[in-house]
Amino acid sequence: MQVRQDKLTQWRHEGQAYPNHFRRDALAGDLQARYGDMDALALEQEPIQARLGGRLMTRRVMGKASFADIQDQSGRIQLFVSRDALGEEHYARFKALDFGDIIGVEGTLFRTKTGELSLKVHSLQLLSKALRPLPEKWHGLSDAETRFRQRYVDLIVTESARRTFQIRAETVAALREGLRQRGFFEAETPMMHAIPGGATARPFMTHHHALDMTLYLRVAPELYLKRLVVGGIEQVFEINRNFRNEGISTRHNPEFTMLEWYEAYADYRDAMDLTETLIRAAAQAALGGTQIQYQGLEIDLGKAFVRMSVSESVRAHNPDLADADLRDPEVLAAKLTQLRVPCEASWGWGKRLIEIFEKTVEGHLQQPTFITEYPLEVSPLARRNDLDPEVTDRFELMIAGRELANGFSELNDPEDQAARFRAQVEAKDAGDEEAMFYDADYIRALEYGMPPTAGVGLGIDRLVMLLADQPSIREVILFPHLRPE
RNA sequence: GGGAAUGUAGCUCAGUCGGUAGAGCAGCGGCCUUUUAAGCCGUGGGUCGCGGGUUCGAAUCCCGCCGUUCCCA
């Protein structure tokens, strides 16, 4: 690094060390795509000139001529640099460059003896000095901590990381486009809530100095988006961050990205249809197909997703339980004890059943499966089922053993909603950190009348993990949370 | 929160039984006009995560702390 520092000082003395006048007219990847098929003779007869900017990644100096690779956002291309073409002084300067330096080159495309499309460089200049050395070219950067802390280095040297974030960008774009095409309106609702709501989760707290009040980072945008439905924005969505003050793991980051959408005059079955369609379209856009591999597992997003109720799925994986047992708190408690899950006395049959579901079913649902009819107890914002008021018109989508989306027919009865909030407040008073607050303004909004509506929340990070075949959420978040160095 | 693994040169990694800290790549000085992990000759580079302890002597053994990774809650 000291040597590079000295070189920079030298450059400063010789003139402009960080010039800003260079303009490129081509990208490496575009040249490869456009002229990759042109043979040597054709390139000679019809010379293609190009100006490229990029980072010097490799160099092979063979005396008076050299090869080098530069990388830009589109990819790489090989340069052929010779003393004859540049002159003694400029060639010496080229040899004094370091890996990682950002240079501008101008030259003519040609094909080498081995047939590689390359740029014969006529002129070359240093645009920005790399004072720190890049990781080794062969092994790259493998230390996960450095990859996440110094993502900028990771992105320079790790092709697979660039690909993952490309998939992420394509996925988000496809979801946004799919909703916009269907007439949905994109909204941005508050990230800072006086009353956090919309999910059962522990919030982060912060303080507003001028107002001298506690504010919470949102755990979900749900209640604000539904206020917009009341306001007449009948198809609305938001793609943005949520914050949950809970454990960190390969599947949880304190801030994560969620897509939520709401559609009036639709129910949870319509919502399942759209969920399925959007995920399929996202896979198609990001990967070019719906047949995917996740950690060695073949997953088919092209086939119709299976739909089954919580009860059906629990029965299927627990043959020792009869239908009637699923509503019997005592039997469920015994089952939990058998599964070595501590069962709290305050839990009703619904909460107990869901614990059994999570322990015995969830992990087995590899292929896309909608699980429906969640107990009312664990669904404080979902509409009651008309035939069975103890369950709700709700679903969760499971793929590769994980929850990917959650949706339901929205509860638009303000009196029922007020009662559900009161039950949540009771749970909170009893010590449940994740229970919801009573949101009086939300009840007031519902009292103006919300049309029958369905809504869905889809975890973007988890979808990207699936599509990019990544085992950890940290691989799909550019700057995952780490403790300070 | 519990358990396991891990931290050594810029990067990727060795380091045996406790006895002067190593390799490859990168760097630096040379040679080399079609290479692609280019090659050949020469050469510099360390807070062994941090703090304590045991010992004549600690990268190595013990204790504590910090970071990271994975598993579990």
Automatic annotation (TrEMBL):
Cofactor, free-text remark: Binds 3 Mg(2+) ions per subunit.
The UniProt annotation places Mg(2+) 2 binding at 403
| Segments forming domain Aminoacyl-transfer RNA synthetases class-II family profile | 165-484
Keyword check for Membrane, yes or no. no
Identify the EC number(s): 6.1.1.6
Provide the reaction this enzyme catalyses.
tRNA(Lys) + L-lysine + ATP = L-lysyl-tRNA(Lys) + AMP + diphosphate
Q: Describe its partners and assembly state.
A: Homodimer.
Q: What is this protein called?
A: Lysine--tRNA ligase
What is the scientific name of the source organism? Acidithiobacillus sulfurivorans
Q: Where is it mainly found?
A: cytoplasm
